[in-house]
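ok so I'm stuck.
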Amino acid sequence: MKINQILPQENEFTEVLEDIALMPKILYYRGKLPEKRVKTVAIVGARRNTRYGEEVAYRLAFELAKRGVVVVSGLAFGIDSIAHKGALDGGGVTIGVLGTEIEKIYPREHEGLAEKMIEQGGAVISEYRLGAKIFPKTTFLERNRIVSGLADVVVVVEAAERSGSLNTAMHALEQGKDLLAVPGDINRPLSAGCNALIRQGANPYTKPDDVLDILFPNHRNKKPHGQLLIFGDNDEETKVLKALAEGLRDGEEIMAKIKMETTEFNQTITMLEIKGNVRSLGANKWTLG
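replied:
not stuck anymore, here's the structure
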């Protein structure tokens, strides 16, 4: 795989790193970096995550990717890899920032994941090349400033009281980024870090709209009487949502009205349900979420 190199200021997407402390002198990358600045969100968290954290991270990354948002994380075990996978499944671009040489994917178990990220238009990046002096206790923390630096918004999903994710959060605050943390069970160690961030002023994250409202302030435009404008992420979703808004509930009736094949309808309605835009009433009957 070809290894490319670039100065942060040579690319509109990476030039935002010029404004962070200890700007990387050079970036090495495999894959493709966005040529222009696009909405970007960093999702970070515990390596030994809970199922709760997995569900939150995956859904957020999936929803962001569906809307063209680039997802950045550290390619580590746990929340990082889940965020990358969610973005891939959402059909989006995701970028992994390494704390090792660009030639060495760490952990090695994620070499396949890194290849998928590259194949789908994303990249893995590092400020180190083979032969560089790597000190894991510091380089993995140093890369966190790049993770947050590339992002418009940073979301911490799960973190213990002492965690690399909290280091990323501190960089985010220093860089003036929007910071959100997922609240959790006060008796669960992996929630302690996030709950502490919220006590210190981070915004609580409860649903994808919490992030989308920051990135796209007008994405939930309303009509004068408070009725939501009906639109989806593509024409098929919009047709289904409009049919439901008109009062149709039965899946067969909706398909007949909008002239949609069963397979396409099932795929569309499933995605809308995942996003929380529709609710199942059972027996192939649906309503707006």
